[in-house]
Design brief:
- The protein is an alpha+beta fold and about 140 residues long.
- It is built from 4 helices and 7 strands, in the order E-H-H-E-E-E-H-E-H-E-E.
- Strands 1-2-3-4-5-7-6 form a 7-stranded mixed sheet, with helices on both faces.
Length: about 140
C-alpha cells in the first residue's frame, strides 16, 4: 500500500486543502476559510497527500472528560485503498497521547462509506442527532 504524506495545515494552501475535503465530505456543514483558521487553534488537523495529490484530511478533537473525537475523511476517488485506515490510526494515536480513554467519531448519515468504515473499525452508534429531514448525524464510539 502506498504511503501517504501528512501535513498539519499551516499555510493558506494546506488550510484550503483541508477545507476542500471537509466541505466535499460534509456538504451539510460547509466551512469558510476563517472557520478553518479558528478550528486549527482548537483541534489537531492534518491533510493527507499521495505524492502531491490531495487524498483526505483528519480532525482530532482533544479529550473532554476522557473522550476524544477522531474523524478521518477520504475523498471518494481514493477510498478503499487503505488511506482512511492510515489517517484513522494516526488520529487514534494522537488522541491516546493527549490522554483519551474513549474514542468517538461522528458521521453524516448520507455518508454510507463513512458509516461502513466506522463499523468495520469497531465503532458502534451511541447517539443520533437529526438536524433536519436530510441531515442525520451519527455519533459512534470505539467498542
Amino acid at each position: 500500500m502506498p504511503s501517504l504524506r501528512f501535513e498539519p495545515p499551516r499555510d493558506d494552501a494546506t488550510l484550503e486543502d483541508w477545507r476542500h475535503v471537509h466541505n466535499e465530505i460534509i456538504p451539510a456543514d460547509p466551512l469558510s476559510p476563517d472557520d478553518v483558521r479558528e478550528r486549527v487553534t482548537r483541534h489537531h488537523l492534518e491533510v493527507a497527500y499521495l505524492g502531491d495529490v490531495l487524498v483526505g484530511c483528519s480532525t482530532v478533537r482533544p479529550p473532554k472528560d476522557g473522550t476524544a473525537m477522531v474523524i478521518a475523511r477520504i475523498l471518494p476517488a481514493h477510498r478503499r485503498q487503505g488511506f482512511g485506515g492510515q489517517l484513522y490510526e494516526r488520529g487514534v494515536e494522537r488522541a491516546r497521547r493527549l490522554g483519551a480513554e474513549v474514542i468517538e467519531t461522528i458521521v453524516l448519515g448520507v455518508n454510507a462509506d463513512g458509516l461502513r468504515f466506522a463499523h468495520q473499525h469497531g465503532f458502534v452508534e451511541v447517539d443520533r442527532h437529526v438536524a433536519d429531514a436530510d441531515e442525520v448525524w451519527h455519533t459512534l464510539r470505539l467498542g
